[in-house]
């Protein structure tokens, strides 16, 4: 019997443990690594060569969507399945663009997770039914990747100087990116722009 080798990326320890325990009960699935952020998960995917990485979206250092995009860019054979609480069309759209093969919600029945993993491992897609219908509706994401990055850091409460230092840009360039993002979202300030973009699933 060929085992399906899984890496799990989840920043909440209880959820990480529960997912690992649940999948560990399946005779055809082997959990070969656990990560608490996207950067750890990327390193594990490089070293452990899993068949599938099961990841949350919102994690420290690197989000699940950024992880998927990085794996796609590297040409990694590992397939990505996202398990999240966020039923947002913007997230699903970005996930598909990043090559994600599965997108499930955390309140889905437990047996649907293993079934989705098998589907993806066999070359198929597994999208939560409630998202498959609505996933391509809604507004298109107007933000560039850099605007998204700057806005996310601003939403964490970082100053322009802190953001500039974190992503190696000048403060003036950071201000320009923030200004563009605020304008595109028709927001009054960076806080409102962050909220609008987050609620739409664009961050």
What characteristics describe this protein?
203 residues, alpha/beta, 2 domains, 6 strands
SSE arrangement:
Elements: E1 4-9, H1 13-24, E2 29-35, H2 38-48, E3 52-55, H3 64-74, E4 79-84, H4 89-97, E5 102-105, H5 110-121, E6 126-127, H6 129-134, H7 145-155, H8 160-167, H9 171-184, H10 190-200
Parallel strand pairs: 1-2, 1-3, 3-4, 4-5, 5-6
If you had to describe this structure to a student in words, what would you say it looks like?
With 203 residues, the protein is α/β, with parallel strands linked by helices. 52% of the residues lie in helices and 14% in strands. It has helices at 13-24, 38-48, 64-74, 89-97, 110-121, 129-134, 145-155, 160-167, 171-184, 190-200; strands spanning 4-9, 29-35, 52-55, 79-84, 102-105, 126-127. The longest helix has 14 residues, at 171-184.
Taking all residues together, what is the mean pLDDT?
87
> What structural class do you assign from the helix and strand content?
alpha/beta
Report the portion of residues in β strands: 5-15%
Major sheet size, sense and barrel closure:
6 strands, parallel
Number of domains: 2
**What is the 3D form?**
elongated
Modified residues (4-aspartylphosphate): 56
Pfam family, one: GerE
Domain Response regulatory: 5-121
Domain HTH luxR-type: 136-201
Summarize the model shown.
The protein is an alpha/beta fold.
């Amino acid at each position: 019997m060929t085992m399906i080798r899984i890496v799990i990326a989840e920043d909440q320890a209880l959820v990480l443990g529960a997912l690992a325990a649940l999948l560990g009960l399946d005779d055809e699935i082997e959990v070969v690594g656990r990560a608490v952020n996207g950067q750890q998960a990327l390193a594990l995917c490089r070293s452990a060569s899993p068949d599938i990485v099961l990841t949350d979206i919102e994690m420290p250092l690197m989000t699940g969507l950024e992880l998927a995009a990085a794996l796609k860019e590297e040409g990694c054979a590992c397939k990505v399945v996202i398990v999240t609480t966020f039923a947002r069309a913007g997230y699903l759209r970005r996930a598909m663009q990043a090559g994600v093969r599965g997108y499930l919600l955390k309140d889905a029945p437990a047996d649907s997770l293993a079934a989705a993993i098998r589907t993806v491992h066999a070359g198929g897609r597994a999208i939560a039914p409630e998202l498959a219908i609505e996933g391509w509706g809604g507004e298109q994401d107007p933000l560039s990747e850099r605007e998204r990055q700057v806005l996310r850091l601003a939403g964490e409460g970082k100053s322009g100087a802190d953001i500039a230092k974190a992503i190696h840009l000048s403060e003036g360039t950071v201000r320009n990116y923030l200004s563009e993002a605020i304008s595109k979202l028709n927001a009054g300030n960076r806080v409102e722009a962050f909220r609008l973009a987050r609620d739409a699933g664009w961050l």
